[in-house]
Every structure is written in structure tokens, then in C-alpha cells.
Design brief:
alpha/beta; Spore Coat Polysaccharide Biosynthesis Protein SpsA, Chain A; 2 domains; eight-stranded mixed β-sheet; 19% strand; transmembrane; metal ion binding; transmembrane helix; EC 2.4.1.135; membrane
Amino acid sequence: MRLRKLKFPLKLNNQRPFDGIFCTLQAILAIIVIIIQTCIIIYLVDERNYEINESMKTSNNSSVQYINNKNNSNRTIIVITPTYLRFARLADMTRLSQTLMHINQLIWIVVEDAEQLSLPVKQLLDRTGLQYYYLAVKHRTGMPVRGWTGRDAGLNFVRKKFASMGSKAVVYFADDDNTYDIRLFNQYIRNVEKIGVWAVGLVAFNVVEAPKIRNKKVIGWQTIYAPRRKWGFDMAGFAVNLELLLRHPQAGWRRRCREHSPEPCLMNLLNVSLNDLTPFGVDSWPREILVWHTKTSNIHIRSRNTYGYNAEVSLQISYLILIH
């Protein structure tokens, strides 16, 4: 019996018949996996973006409430700032103005220590959008400190212009080079019913100078500078309700006083005691400092050429008062 030799179809390139189909299915499957992965990534990214957007909305709303915190007080804050021409003045005033721009119901009284007003300062005030009054009052000779005349002029202007506000306004003296937390205005100053006091950082050789409290009453001052003085606080560390200032029209700095410091001069003329002071910022722990007695360092200038930029060297305008 003879065996027949069986013949099989030839193999092309050593591949099995189903290899082509298998490779095609693999490619399709890989594409499907990539599509699924892409869809998952897109979904996760969209979800993350949604969470971020919602978080940003919440954060923005919280920031608005944080800055202009609604409280029981609807008082207007009147800020009096004495200022004078110097190289760093525009930098200082820019920083202060950017803070005040965040505060609602605020009136800014700026008193220029000169016979003329500064055009760059007026332009800066215009840009803020704040209600402001810009006065030019040259400091009186014989006064111990430059800012006394400016504060007194601003205070007299407030008494004449805003007497109708009475107890619905609070006056605060803000130097142009200090550093202010926005919470100072809404959480402290706006709630002052008579006289409010609080801590000030970097003042009178202290890291912080603050009222000494017992049973929620001011009994003295935490400071190394003349700690036994009756009024041991800085100008940045208190605010006065306008009603009290109206009841004592002579309170101010029209003349020299024996204490040689502006704070006791004003307090003594207001005829108040420590019992009339309300401390702020003493209940929380750790306690926070919301105003710092900072000062821009002296700047040594070799060239006064401004190259056309608004750097305030000698540009001034001759109006006696500008009101916006």
C-alpha cells in the first residue's frame, strides 16, 4: 500500500491565517482603551475644574465678606492723614490708598504740609475713587512735631463739614507711612462708640505696644517707653467717635502742650479717663496686630531726573483746596 503525500497550502511570510485578523482586533482594542482613558481624564479634569471654580467663588465671596464685614455698626470712618513732600511719599501714599480702597463708607482727609498742593498726590487721590478732601496747610512754627498742624487742620475741617454725622462717624488719624490691616477699619474703628484702643507694632522701641487689660477694662499700658504714663499709646492705636470731638471743640493741637506728645494733648482736652476706653483685639488668642508703625528708610538720591515719569520731585499746583 502506497502512502500519499498530503499537500498543505503554502505559508506566506511564516504567518498563520488568523494573524492579520488578530492584529487588527488588537489595534482596535488599543484604540478603544485610549479613547476610554482619554474620556476618563477629561471627566476628571472637568470635575477638578468645577471644584476649583466653586472653591474660587466661595473664596471670593468670603473675601468680600471678610473685607467689608457686616456688623451692627453703620458708622462712617473718617481718616485724617497729614503728609509732606519727600522722595518716598508717593510710594507710602500708594500703599495706604490701596488699603483704604477696600473699605466701604470711608472719607479720607489728606492735609499737605505746604502752601500748595501736590499734583501727583491729587492724581493718586483721584484714581482711588474714594470720597476725599485734599487741604494745604503749612505747619505752624513752634510746634514740636510736623504732623501736629496737619492733624489739627484736618480735625477742624471734620467738625465743620461733618458735624451732622454726630455719633454715626469715627475719626482715625492714619500716618501715610504706617501699615494697616483692612480688619482694623471694619472690626475695630467702625465699632468705636467713644474711644477705642488697640495694639500697635514696632513703636516706641517695642515690638508691640498695647493696652493692659483687667476684667475687659484698660488699666494701663504694656510698653517699655514710660510705662506709667496715663496715655501710653501711639496715634495709630486709637480712634475717637465724632460725637465726643464735637462736644469738645477745643480738643486738638492748636497750641503747644506740656506733654510734648500728641496723644495726651488730645486726650486731656477731651476730658476722658481710662474708663472711657474700649479695648479691641484682646479676646482672641494669639492676639493679632492690625497696625504697624513702619517708616520708609531714608533714600539717597544722586539724580533728580524723572525722565518724564510721575515721580514727584517739584511738581505742584497752586490750589488752596481740592475737593472730590
